[in-house]
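call fold(seq) -> tokens
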Amino acid sequence: YPARQDRIHDLSIVGMYDISRRWKFSATWVFNTGDAATFPSGSYEFEGRRIPYYTERNGYRFPNYHRLDLGATFIARKTSRYESSWNFSVYNAYGRQNTYAISFAANEDDPQKNEATQIALFRWIPSATWNFKF
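ret:
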């Protein structure tokens, strides 16, 4: 069976461009084949409880993962006492809801059927950073 961390494809493309001596831009695109996962094939009831059963270990895959990170850095003027820069970035700029986990629950209309629900953590994360040296 494939290992949990088995990723058939793992690709990162990085681009950096200096607009001027003070402004720098960057972009990173990341793509991964979805992680291998074991999902329940069905379930049965035993003493009033639903028990899932599994047929194939890591026989399924999460959806493929991809995101675009963008960043801009402004380098402030140096002084005799310090130098500094500001960095503004967005993690997952196009807001893709990449699958973190998949949850299973019984269907409300037909308790014999399972429903899968995708769980995603972050759509996008902006950040601002001030760096300085003295």
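The radius of gyration is 23 Å.
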